[in-house]
């Protein structure tokens, strides 16, 4: 049903997908989109701090941000469980005060994906910010623009291509998230069983190799689509500027 | 007045400036690269913070280290034209011009656009503009932010000679129309001659001279940077008439002294500044007759200065001002020159061309 809304009349089942596959696919998309949407503002802020500011402990901050990239995902998932579970250090208060729970829900999967894909996003956006000539920002300030206007009218638009590529990277990484997700929120059909988890379940099941292969093709298709979309978007960003500069 | 009193350590150079500039007119900041010229205007704009001192624009402090005042860049309202233009690549020319244009007054916008000849560029992106066009847009953008102080950091330095010639009239128009102080950083004496009223000379961070152009030009401050062939005198003159038969114009220097220069200057009555190259001035003890030289002026020898072993500089008093002549030590000895003597200075009409004549706009503005 949700599939019809997503593809505008064309039902995903018309593509020959099974109900099970559609459920995993839509859940994966929901988790990845939520993960990117919520980590983007924080990611932009952290990238800006790293690209434009000097402060004490910057190297440590940078390393901490990169930690999920090098930690085994199962460690990230375990830490999430300890911190954000319903009995966790932070999760307890979130549940008591706001009724917000991450355990065994798609929100937890999105949180795990966001954490694991965060370093990739920040790296790409930071590089884009660093590529913006600070001289342009200075020029904008001499024209009377405060820091916030300089950021919104100069820094952000000029690094848009990099931000888009950071979002796509994070989106793709979220789609593929496995270890932290299964550790933190388990493998619950319809709730936390995203594409990789569904594929893992099929591989675990004897005689389900064909189903696993079908999911594999779907995963490749989505990744390709995301990359193509990002190329199209960044080309549009550049062509809006007359010629290359 | 714009009162500047600053100190700033820059590596192993200590920049020290103490200047008081009028609230109108162009002050050129001259010096070699590394002398601290750009740092000085960056401090005026607020992009660099001085170690100590103060900047007062009229009644307002832009910076005062004792009172702890350091006005933010965006609150200073200083128009800044950078050497590399720094146009915003994602805005069209119109968007660039309007970036700092708060009141959006269409009359003011059109006036600036017309002054800088930007009408045909408005819908183009900066990437498609030539270097000279970019600089004109950068000037327009700075002016439309209604600055109280205009800073120009070598706006012509990155351009080739034809582009410089194309841009110079626009700069002269700015200098003439704006009633705000303009600080013009340059290492080109030709540009300074064409544009500036006042000159501030920096040498390794130290301010070695600051004052009206003519006065600094005549002083010793510029000597180290001026090659002998480029040495010259600056004279104020008024445009007289064009010769009825020849392509030459008479300039009046006052006190019935006059100078014929090549070319036609048609703004009769305008004040101009004329540069006379010292190498092109020779002296005679008697008024020469039957000479091809068009300008023979009676002068009084005011000073004899040994420049180096090849050259002697003569300071010749003429109509309330001074004319410098470079001669050889041999000529000095043979003529037996003494201070106070009357001499006849000869200047070839062809040696003074368009590049040596600049409008003396300030004098006109205030007289």
Descriptive report:
- The complex is a heterodimer of chains A (245) and B (367).
- In chain A, helix 6 runs antiparallel to helix 9 and helix 11 packs antiparallel against helix 12.
- By secondary structure, chain A is mostly helical.
- The radius of gyration of chain A is 20 Å and the shape is globular.
- Chain A has one domain: MetI-like fold (Orthogonal Bundle).
- Chain A is built from twelve helices and no strands.
- Chain B folds into two domains: 225 residues, P-loop containing nucleotide triphosphate hydrolases (Rossmann fold, 3-Layer(aba) Sandwich); 135 residues, RNA polymerase II/Efflux pump adaptor protein, barrel-sandwich hybrid domain (OB fold (Dihydrolipoamide Acetyltransferase, E2P), Beta Barrel), CATH 2.40.50.100.
- Chain B starts with a strand and ends with a helix.
- Chain B is built from ten helices and 21 strands.
- In chain B, the strands form four sheets. A six-stranded mixed sheet of chain B has the order 7-8-9-3-10-11, sandwiched between helices. Chain B has a five-stranded antiparallel sheet with strand order 2-1-4-5-6, with helices on one face.
- Chain B is globular.
- Chain B is 23% helix and 38% strand.
- Chain B: One of its GO terms (cellular component) is membrane.
- Chain B: Pfam families: ABC_tran, TOBE.
- Chain B: It comes from Shewanella salipaludis.
- Chain B: Keywords: ATP-binding, Cell inner membrane, Cell membrane, Membrane, Molybdenum, Nucleotide-binding, Translocase, Transport.
- Chain B: GO terms for molecular function: ABC-type transporter activity; ATP binding; ATP hydrolysis activity; molybdate ion transmembrane transporter activity.
């Amino acid at each position: 049903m949700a599939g019809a809304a997503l593809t505008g009349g064309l039902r995903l089942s018309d593509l020959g997908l099974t109900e099970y596959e559609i459920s995993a696919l839509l859940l994966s998309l929901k988790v990845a989109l939520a993960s990117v949407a919520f980590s983007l503002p924080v990611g932009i802020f952290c990238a800006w701090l790293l690209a434009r500011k000097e402060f004490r402990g910057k190297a440590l901050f940078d390393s901490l941000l990169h930690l999920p990239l090098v930690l085994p995902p199962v460690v990230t998932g375990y830490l999430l469980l300890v911190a954000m579970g319903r009995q966790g250090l932070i999760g307890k208060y979130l549940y008591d005060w706001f009724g917000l729970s991450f355990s065994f829900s798609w929100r937890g999967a999105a949180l795990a994906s966001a954490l694991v894909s965060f370093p990739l996003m920040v790296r790409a956006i930071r590089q884009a910010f660093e590529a913006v000539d600070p001289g342009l920002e200075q020029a904008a300030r001499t024209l009377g623009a405060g820091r916030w206007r300089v950021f919104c009218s100069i820094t952000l638009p000029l690094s848009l291509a990099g931000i888009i590529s950071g979002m796509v990277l994070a989106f793709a990484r979220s789609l593929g998230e496995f270890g932290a997700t299964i550790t933190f929120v388990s493998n619950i059909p319809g709730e936390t069983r995203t594409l990789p988890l569904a594929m893992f379940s099929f591989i675990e099941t004897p005689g389900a190799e064909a189903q696993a292969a079908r999911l594999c093709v779907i995963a490749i298709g989505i990744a390709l689509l995301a990359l193509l979309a990002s190329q199209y978007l960044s080309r549009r960003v550049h062509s809006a500027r007359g010629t290359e500069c | 007045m714009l009162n500047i009193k600053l100190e700033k350590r820059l590596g192993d150079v200590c920049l020290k400036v103490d200047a008081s500039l009028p609230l109108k007119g162009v002050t050129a900041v001259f010096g070699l690269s590394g002398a601290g010229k750009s740092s000085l205007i960056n401090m005026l704009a607020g992009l660099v913070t001085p170690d100590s001192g103060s900047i007062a624009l009229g009644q307002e402090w832009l910076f005062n280290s004792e009172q702890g005042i350091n006005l933010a860049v965006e609150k200073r309202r200083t128009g800044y034209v950078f050497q590399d233009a720094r146009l915003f690549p994602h805005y069209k020319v119109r968007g660039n011009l309007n970036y700092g244009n708060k009141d959006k007054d269409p009359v003011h916008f059109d006036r600036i656009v017309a002054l800088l000849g930007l009408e045909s560029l408005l819908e183009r992106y900066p990437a498609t503009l030539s270097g000279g066009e970019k600089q004109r847009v950068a000037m327009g953008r700075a002016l439309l932010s209604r600055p109280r102080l205009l800073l120009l950091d070598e706006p012509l330095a990155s351009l080739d000679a034809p582009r410089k010639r194309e841009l110079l009239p626009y700069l002269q128009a700015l200098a003439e129309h704006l009633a705000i102080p303009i600080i013009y950083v340059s290492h080109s004496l030709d540009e300074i001659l064409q544009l500036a009223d006042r000159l501030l000379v920096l040498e390794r961070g130290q301010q070695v001279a600051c004052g009206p152009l003519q006065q600094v030009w005549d002083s010793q401050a510029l000597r180290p940077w001026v090659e002998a062939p480029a040495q010259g005198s600056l004279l104020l003159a008024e445009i007289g008439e064009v010769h009825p038969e020849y392509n030459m114009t008479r300039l009046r220097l006052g006190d019935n002294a006059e100078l014929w220069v090549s070319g036609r200057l048609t703004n009769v009555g305008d004040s101009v500044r004329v540069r006379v190259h010292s190498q092109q001035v020779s002296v005679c003890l008697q008024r020469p007759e039957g000479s091809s030289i068009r300008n023979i002026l009676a002068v009084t020898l005011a000073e004899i200065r040994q420049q180096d072993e090849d050259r002697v500089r003569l300071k010749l008093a003429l109509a309330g001002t001074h004319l410098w002549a470079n001669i050889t030590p041999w000529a000095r000895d043979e003529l037996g020159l003494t201070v106070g003597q009357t001499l006849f200075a000869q200047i070839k009409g062809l040696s003074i061309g368009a590049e040596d004549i600049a409008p003396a706009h300030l004098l006109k503005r205030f007289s």
